[in-house]
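Q: Got a minute? One more chain.
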Amino acid sequence: MALDWRDQLNSDDPKVRAQAVKAIALSGNQDYLKYLIEIAENDPDSQLREYAKKAAQHLYASQTKPQPKPEPEPEPIRQSPSIPEKSDSEIDAALAHPTLEIEEEDLSTADVREAESKVQRAFSLHTRGQTKKALLVYAQALELNPLLGKNSFSRSVASELTGKPFQDSLLILGDPDKLSEFIEANYGKAKKERKKVSSPSKAQK
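A: Always. Here it is, folded:
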């Protein structure tokens, strides 16, 4: 029986690990994206890191294609169900980013696709060590599509960029001020060009 891909990931042979990457990409299960992200960032083989990055993007794209919505069945008349209580982090996220309350129907297809593209770009930048820039790109994606949290890949990327759970990441990425503070605390202020001050000319008689 062939090795399970989890066993293949622990192999010393990069070709065997590549087989595991392929198996994950073809699984269609976005819960496995965290493994691809881990490989893309930390595998000692540079070619395999690039392969894992492409595999993660493939798995993400394969799950974000628009699906036709089935016709809803008429619901019987009943009492309104009680509204489930939200966690503190969800409440904080909603207050910091009110557009989270919008519905999918309110988003244009173009915005959704552009947001997906930006998430992939943010992931690509992060794997190349450009996390500071990746944070800004992801924030743009979140502005286009505040419902990114419904996608496993988007959640994983957000957490990877900030090192925090997704809901906490959302509070940072969805708030320009908090994002600026986070970037400054972790990556320093953006370098500003220093103006050259010319020496004052001597007073002429």
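A: The chain has two domains: 1-63, 87-189.
Q: Perfect, thanks.
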